Amino acid sequence: MHRVLGDRRAVLILIGPALLVYSLIMLVPMVWSLGYSFTQGNPIDGFSGSGLDNFHRLFTDPDVRHALWFTAKYAVTVTVGQVVAGYLLALLYVFFLKRASALVRTLVFFPVVLPTVAVGLLFKNFFQVAPQAGPVNSLLNSIGIDSIDWFGSSGHAFWVLIIMDIWRSLGFYAVLLFAGLVDIPEEVLESARLDGASGLRLVRHIVLPMSFPVLMSSLIFSVNGTLKAFDSIVALTNGGPGNSTSPLTLYMFQTSFTYGDYGYGSTIALLLTVVCLMVTLVVFRVSRRDLTKD
């Protein structure tokens, strides 16, 4: 194996095809989209060069600022909810439920395999106010609180989105973090217990540092997924009321395919790509810290 890996020609033959396919599938569309950023038009009307007009428009467009602010707010809230709740669930699996956790893991993971549109319709019915009150408003009515139009204000719609997306993906992050926690050697935990560490001290000084890499991986998965959230928002609110729950992805889609402005849509996509790269670099930078040295 060492002889093969030491031969540059063998390495090139082994990874060359995969690298070529990756370049064709991933990089070529990105470069193509970057080229669209300097044009205006669409495939039906044709394209014409626009120089840096799309970038000037990007920095002066209030809808972009609003969509970027909503995207950041949504990404931070959902990421914190997914990773923190997923980590707590993983701790529950490992330290309390142990062998009996298989059934709970299966039940919690079930929403992950449901179609996003089905989950969106489910939550619409849960929180609906008319023509008849959904289960949530019925519960509020039963304790003397008037029904709330959950999708009639941006604040309420935002929190319904947050609840839905955390519920839908919680099982995935719990399983991912569970896989990291079960890799911690039992001998290390037992030694820590013998030294007097238990409960929160055990988690703080042993479990958290040793599961830090998988925690960072979960964070990267979550923040990149939430920055690019699209289908769940379309299924539940379609960006409404108005455009108050419209992230960059939805604004990009509407600009490109509803209004036929591919050039400006590609510029918004470029902005989103840069944001994702910057956030990922920050997370990687933070993840270099070795907590086991503390």
What's this entry about, in short?
This protein has 294 residues and is mainly alpha-helical. It has helices spanning 2-6, 8-36, 53-60, 62-97, 101-109, 116-127, 135-142, 154-181, 186-194, 199-210, 212-227, 231-236, 248-258, 262-287; strands at 39-42, 46-49.
Structural class: mainly alpha
Helical content stands at: over 70%
Shape, principal axes of CA atoms? flat
- Taking all residues together, what is the mean pLDDT? 87
Low-pLDDT parts are none
- Count up the helices: 14
Q: How many strands?
A: 2
Distance between the termini: 37 Å
- Helix/strand order: HHEEHHHHHHHHHHHH
Note the beta-strand portion. Answer: under 5%
C-alpha Rg (nearest Å): 24 Å
Major sheet: 2 strands, antiparallel
Q: What does this entry look like structurally?
A:
- This protein is 73% helix and 3% strand.
- The protein has 14 helices and 2 strands; from the N terminus they run ααββαααααααααααα.
- It has helices spanning 2-6, 8-36, 53-60, 62-97, 101-109, 116-127, 135-142, 154-181, 186-194, 199-210, 212-227, 231-236, 248-258, 262-287, and strands spanning 39-42, 46-49.
- It has a two-stranded antiparallel sheet.
- A hairpin with a 3-residue loop joins strand 1 and strand 2.
- The longest helix is centred in the N-terminal third of the chain and has 36 residues, at 62-97.
- The two termini are 37 Å apart.
Task: Walk me through the topology.
Layout: H1 2-6, H2 8-36, E1 39-42, E2 46-49, H3 53-60, H4 62-97, H5 101-109, H6 116-127, H7 135-142, H8 154-181, H9 186-194, H10 199-210, H11 212-227, H12 231-236, H13 248-258, H14 262-287
Antiparallel strand pairs: 1-2
Helix pairs in contact: 2-14, 3-14, 4-5, 4-8, 4-11, 5-8, 8-11, 11-14, 13-14
